[in-house]
Amino acid sequence: MRDGIFMKRLAIYFFYDQFGEVDRYIDFFLQNFAQSVNKVIVVCNGILSNNGRKIFEKYTSDIIVRENTGFDVWAYKTGIDFIGWENMKQFDELILLNFTVMGPVVSFSDVFSKMEKEKELDFWGLNTHYGDTVACFDGNPYGYIPKHIQSHFTVFRRKLLMSQLFMKYWNNVPEISNYKEAVGKHESFITKYFEDNGFRWSCYTKDEHLSKLTPYPLVDLPVETIKNCGSPVFKRKNFMLEKKHFLMSGSSGNVNNELFSYIQKETEYDTNLILENIIRTSKHDTLISSLNLYYTPCVKSEVYQKAIAVCIQLDSFSLTENDWKDLLEKIPAYVSVFLLSSQILSEVVEKLKKIRKSITVVQVEKTFKSMQNHIIEISKEYEFLCVLDYEDPFPRNNLTSYQYQKAIVEIMLNNGEIGYILNVFSENPLLGLLIPTELEFGHYYYHFPYIWKRNQEEMKKFVNEFSQTTNLIDLYETSFAPVFGSYWYRAEAISQKAFEVKPNMTLESQLLLLPFICKNNGFYTACLLTNEYEKNMIGNHRFFSNRLSRYFPQKHPINFHEAELCQKTFSSSQQHIVNLENIVKNRDQNIENYKMALQDAGHHATNLENIIENREQNIENYKVALRNAEHHATNLEDIIKNKEQDLTKSRQRVEVLEKSSSWKMTAPYRFVGKCVHQVLNKIRNLQK
Hints:
CATH topology of the largest domain: Spore Coat Polysaccharide Biosynthesis Protein SpsA, Chain A
Distance between the termini: 132 Å
Strand order of the largest sheet: 12-19-17-18-16-13-14-15
Helix content: 40-55%
Low-confidence stretches: 1-5
Number of domains: 3
CATH class of the largest domain: Alpha Beta
Largest sheet: 8 strands, mixed
């Protein structure tokens, strides 16, 4: 018996992390869960860090690290194969659970105590998905998504556990190659499969009445599911989904902020456990939009013991003397103020020194590197710093630039009420960087994506230095950063090394990197806004929305689905235009190639004509040579005939001499006779 629970339980816990890091939310979860089970097997897909292994070893010695294949389905199968069917007989319940949920906000001992009373059940879970008759994930044999237990926590009891049907199912698990197949072939299938074979099931969280609103209450209505339906857990992915998911489902888009606030204020669960994980693993811009991290300071801090400084790069602003006078007079005396300027003896500097006598003037060169070096030195003595600089990425209109400068300074100094900003940092210990909210007016409307895009390639060169255990995948997407040069930061969140200007790195890229450096150190970035500018931005957005609505002349309001469809259509059209431009470009290139080919063909034709002309000349030469050869052959025949005639005459003479006997007796004539014979033989040979 453990904590008053008599059932003997085996748990197989599936874990995955890109870097193999086990965050504190898992430790907290297992610490509570392990008190209600007899044995835990941990199956890790991919890699497991040394620190992660130490955390799991607090609860079990059975830790299996396998290749990252098959998702949770094959991790569970690996655990089942590890324990074996024979050893499984000693347990009353098998629990398959994974890292995708956080909690508990209700003790698991209470959960098991309650569910143990429902003795008629053969298997059960924590949360229900109520199915979808339209959508269907890959490989689901039913052709739709049936009502089912969500796979993050499923419990199988002895009757089902020892059945041939259960063993056959796990001995023949299909291959799983992607998330959709994991849902289609297993999660959305297994509940109905066992139910159709006579086994009964239910879930701890009673939220069926919410199925009229959404098939997925745990994600779409998490506060209601926890508060009124008793769910002991909440989904980790809630804080990692883009706002589009919730807007597409018809909600206000404030789901995650409500969930975070409820957990923080109404439960004993430490929300820093949530932040520590999602800061490290989620996209930077998704984190900000998911939790609506836009702070409008409204509570003043009464604790001023912390070292605080404001560094103003005076040369980059075009504010009037009265603007600075109004702001500097409001900054509390406990805040150190540094004026960085290349002209420390200027009239403006002298006047500002009179407004605030405790001000420190630092002479710097008109370079980003010089300013950053001085900020590094100043930061060594302070816990919180505000850097006020202004770098206009789209310099066009002097009035717009002036208005933007004034807005940024007023927002960052909160009209002099810095105590309110300090309270934001105090209430949020993992807040590392506060940047001014992206104001949209003049030519600054929706400007940030363009700044991001033009620095993207340069950013890629430096990001690896900060991505050892942090998911920086959003580096290649639009994100939030202090691109205008002004920001508040907690000194421990951004190392001094981050301010060192890297070779060939632009100011914009340096500023774009700050949130990622902050994130890698375990802190998040948020946006700062005053009440005055918040109202102004709402008014501006209202005006822009009304103007945009003119392009959609419909009789009913445009909903998010239609806006998304318009966006997709527009994106498709843009892609189509790009494709057409490429086709035209390719055709132009083909025309140039055809022209070059035609020129080459002309040259080739000329060469062929020359070759033919040369061949014709050669033929004429051959004909002349042939006629000459024929004449020469005729002459040779005449010569041969004349020679034959001469030889015939010579032979006849020799034969006459040979027949004569008067010369044979004398020696001279014998010699002549011998010569005559030799001549005759040669004549015969020649004739042959």
